[in-house]
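Record 1 of the preview.
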Amino acid sequence: MKLITVSGPPSSGKTSVVIRTIEQLEHPERVMVVKFDCLSSTDQERYRAGGIRAVTGLSGNQCPDHFYITNVEDCVKQGEKEDRSLLIVESAGLCNRCAPHLKGCLAVCVIDNLSGINTPQKIGPMLKYADLVVVTKGDIVSQAEREVFAFKVRQANAGAQIIFVNGITGQGAFDLSRAWLEAPELNNGLKESRLRFSMPSALCSYCLGETRIGEEYLKGNYKKMRWE
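->
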């Protein structure tokens, strides 16, 4: 079984890209998608409407990145139990600092042309450590804008392959599906696997449910601004 992580900012078109790409595969019935989100998600219905096996995990009051990484091994075990050939894990897309990519698995980051010319520089590990960067909504901007945006992506991640995909028409999804087929196979599940980059720090007093404001209530892992 192959595992592919798909990340990206909110509303960048991750779900549409995944659906259009699965449609290009020879055996879409052997694909399973796990969508991680925070409070709610309707993407599961979109997947199921296309005949795609999909499961949603909601983190609730827990950091969605930490919820994801503590559940991804169970996702792999379930995929193997169901004899799936491809497992797509779609991250919540709530934090530009998130780091959902795993060593030894194909890592995809979806980013859209309308997010702002400097957005690639503002996104952390989910873009900088991706193998593939999928750029969406290119049909809405000019060719010059697409080229400048792609240049900014290359500045942030010089080693990634860039693929333009239209989530509405599916243009470009075939090229992405070929890249998926070349993804490495999992060996012995995720045993001994590691993240490509560390998750954001957690366990400050507010992570543990504190609501009062003030220095006397700050405990655990927290960081203060430096004033000049």
